[in-house]
Design goal:
TATA-Binding Protein, 8-stranded mixed sheet
């Protein structure tokens, strides 16, 4: 033991190295230069959107103390140590009545467990204990011990430690204190923010990380009861790799598999299955939650309850929302928690990692270099084929969320927005799905984030003229979901937050979606069911048109928003009354047929269609049928994309109507089925997602006849494209 008082000046700990930042997405080129915008000011108002006109501007916890000023002014504003800090003699002060403080001695927030010294430390010296506590505190990111007091031996053992934790971006300081009273076997820990009100769980996460370190070193007893960590952390023994390492690194795939098995073993209302494997053989996990339990996807569909599918990590280096989902899995499996209570109203499916190979390699792509979020139409990759075939098609969810996280640029969560979102944006989908997201779901997310001191807005980026949404390609998840008559939502999340804040706000975003389904479940199911029913009716009647080309135009409403200054990134600029370019508009159309007919040897094309769960039939006997087909007047091959060797662009001429004798074995795909919109997008040869574009018709294209026609267009007829459109119903033998 140390004789007398000891107030040691301690060396500064090395600065924390920020995690890798990635920029990616489906929004096209980086925004151009900016002009004609002004810095935001404390009197600015909430962005005016079609769903939230003139609502107050949410003010984040990070910005609240000084108003919404340029961020450069805020950097380094750590504040002075508060008056209520503790001491060796007095112990630790209670927490104020605000949600930005944790006190283990008072069990605040409710259920916070005590730090009880383990039996192994009963005979150890106070100096050894002080060094162990200091090591645990210094293991926390950007945390510096600034005071360590130890009691003299005649007064009995006791210590007081104070540390300052500094946020990575804005340099805000939180105070962490540890106290051991004379004769006590309990370390009391207090962590509190100096500024703002809500901390989005940062202090709880910090205390939880310290507990994990001290438990691992045998200083405090494991499993002291109660709940540790931020929202969703319920005190179950399973911990993610992120939590075990004090938020220093993401959960590995092996840790993920172990964690899911442990949660399943100690939780309830949860089933865990492997629905496929990655290229490198890693398991793809689906956790399903229901009460009362459903024994199969068919039971879930017949239950009359909304089915929600929450996913993340389609891009391997997107870790944050993967960690949020792992946290939520634990709470969903724990009776009595907020999330578990939602199972009385819905069925929840969670796929935390769609791209485990990419996650292990810290890569956007899978093991063969394919972008899985560009594989929804071909389903060439085993990960996406399993996800669409074994999860989406079998369970038929009403709502799907695809979670991504980007970097600190105007993609994927750009300051000041913690979350960017978008619904389906293809003219080929039922517009009611996008309207439901815009007018019902997204305003609810805005309110949830505002209440937490954060901000959310539409994906993807803005300049001084307009805010631009993401693209319309149906090879991407949110648009494919709309095409398949599901409310499919993209989340692009910020990585510029502290990791505890980012993970917590991810939990908040997904939870808000579940609460929406609880409160508006009937509307959600009715909207999706109507879209599916209308798709079947349009196909059965061969009515309506199919957009084969489309463009993005300005939405009806105008918006105001904030962006980073191009030359001074720490400064925010506000753009007023701008266009919102996110409305998909068809620019060229083709008539919807009752069915498509393909030659019997078009097996590669049919295989691609079938992978989606689309019903395909065959003619059992020859039939003479009146059909439409396109004249093929041009063909061009280009270098392929997304691990496809080459893609095919065609030019068609007149629509020919003929009666043709079709052989037995001819393939037929009706459009009057729930996935009829997907079928038409695959089989209308002029779309950039068709079996022709993806080169699945191969030698069936009449290239020799086309060459002869092009040599003598006046003397020869153009060949017909071998995809035929049956415009009225028939009885198939």
């Amino acid at each position: 033991m140390i004789q007398g008082w000891s107030r040691k000046p301690l060396p500064r700990t090395p600065g924390h190295v920020p995690s890798k930042v990635h920029s990616h997405g489906d929004a096209g080129k980086k925004p151009p230069g900016f002009s004609g915008v002004v810095p935001v000011n404390p009197g600015a108002t909430r962005p005016t959107t079609p769903h939230a006109p003139d609502a107050p501007l949410p003010r984040s916890r990070l910005l609240r103390p000084l108003g919404v000023l340029p961020l450069l002014v805020l950097v380094g504003c750590s504040g002075t140590p508060p008056d209520e800090l503790g001491s060796l003699e007095e112990g630790l002060a209670p927490c104020p009545e605000s949600p930005n403080c944790v006190h283990t001695g008072d069990g605040y927030p409710e259920g916070t467990p005590a730090f009880l010294l383990s039996d192994a430390w009963s005979g150890r010296s106070l100096e050894e204990l002080a060094e162990a506590v200091r090591a645990g505190v210094e293991s926390l990111p950007r945390t510096e011990v600034v005071r360590l007091d130890q009691a003299p031996v005649e007064a009995g053992p006791g210590l007081y430690l104070r540390a300052e934790s500094t946020s990575r971006i804005f340099r805000f300081v939180d105070d962490l204190e540890v106290h051991l009273a004379s004769g006590s076997d309990e370390l009391v820990v207090r962590s509190a923010s100096r500024m703002g009100e809500s901390d989005m769980g940062v202090n709880e996460a910090r205390v939880a990380a310290l507990r994990i370190h001290l438990e691992r070193d045998g200083v405090v007893r494991a499993g002291a009861g109660g709940s540790t960590g931020a929202r969703g952390d319920t005190g179950l023994s399973p911990r993610t790799g992120l939590e075990r390492t004090g938020y220093e690194r993401h959960t590995t795939h092996d840790e993920l598999a172990e964690y899911l098995a442990e949660v399943r073993a100690v939780g309830s209302d949860m089933e865990l299955e492997v629905f496929g494997q990655s290229h490198e053989g890693r398991d793809l996990f689906l956790a399903s939650f229901s009460r009362p339990a459903v024994g199969s996807p068919e039971e879930a569909i017949d239950s009359g309850r909304p089915i929600l599918l929450l996913g993340a990590n389609v891009h391997g280096f997107n870790y944050l929302l993967r960690e949020s989902l792992l946290r939520m899995i634990r709470e969903l499996a724990t009776p009595g928690t907020e999330l578990n209570g939602l199972l009385d109203h819905m069925i929840v499916l969670v796929v935390p990692s769609k791209n485990p190979d990419g996650a292990e390699a810290d890569s956007r792509f899978n093991a063969v270099g394919a972008d899985l979020n560009r594989d929804y139409m071909t389903l060439d990759q085993p990960e996406m084929a399993a996800y669409v075939g074994s999860v989406i098609r079998r369970w038929q969810p009403h709502l799907v969320v695809d979670g991504h996280d980007g970097g600190a640029v105007q993609y994927g969560g750009a300051r000041p927005y913690s979350l960017l979102y978008q619904g389906p944006a293809t003219a080929a989908a039922d517009a009611s799905l996008t309207e439901l997201a815009d007018h019902e779901l997204f305003p609810r997310i805005d309110r949830s984030f505002e209440e937490a001191g954060l901000e959310a807005f539409y994906w993807a980026w803005g300049d001084e003229e307009a805010w631009h949404g993401g693209g319309s390609a149906t090879r991407m998840g949110r648009n494919y979901g709309g095409l398949a008559n599901t409310l499919s939502i993209l989340f692009e999340f910020a990585e510029w937050h502290e990791r505890p804040v980012a993970v917590e706000s991810g939990v908040l975003a997904y939870t808000t979606v579940l609460e929406f389904a609880r409160d508006r479940g009937e509307l959600l199911m009715q909207t999706v069911d109507d879209a599916r029913r209308l798709t079947v009716e349009l196909g059965e009647r061969a009515q309506g048109e199919i957009p084969v080309e489309e463009s993005m135009e300005a939405d009806e409403g105008r918006v105001s928003y904030r962006i980073s200054h191009p030359e001074r990134p720490d400064e925010l600029l506000r753009v007023e009354d701008a266009e919102h370019i996110k409305k998909p508009v068809g620019t060229r159309f083709r008539a919807r047929p009752w069915a498509y007919l393909l030659p019997a040897d078009a097996t590669e094309a049919v295989e691609m269609v079938r992978r989606h769960g689309i019903e395909v039939e065959r003619l059992d006997a020859p039939m003479a049928l009146a059909v439409q087909s396109y004249e093929l007047v041009g063909i061009r091959h280009e270098e392929g994309v997304n691990e496809v060797d080459s893609v095919v662009h065609i030019e068609v001429g007149a629509v020919e109507e003929r009666t043709i004798e079709f052989d037995a074995g001819t393939w037929m795909v009706r459009t009057g089925q729930p996935l009829g919109r997907v079928a038409t997008h695959l089989l209308e040869a002029e779309t950039t997602e068709s079996v022709v574009y993806w080169n699945r018709m191969g030698a069936l294209l009449p290239t020799a006849e086309l060459s002869e026609y092009l040599e003598d267009p006046a003397g020869r007829s153009a060949p017909l494209l071998p995809i035929y459109k049956l415009m009225s119903g028939i009885s198939v033998p």
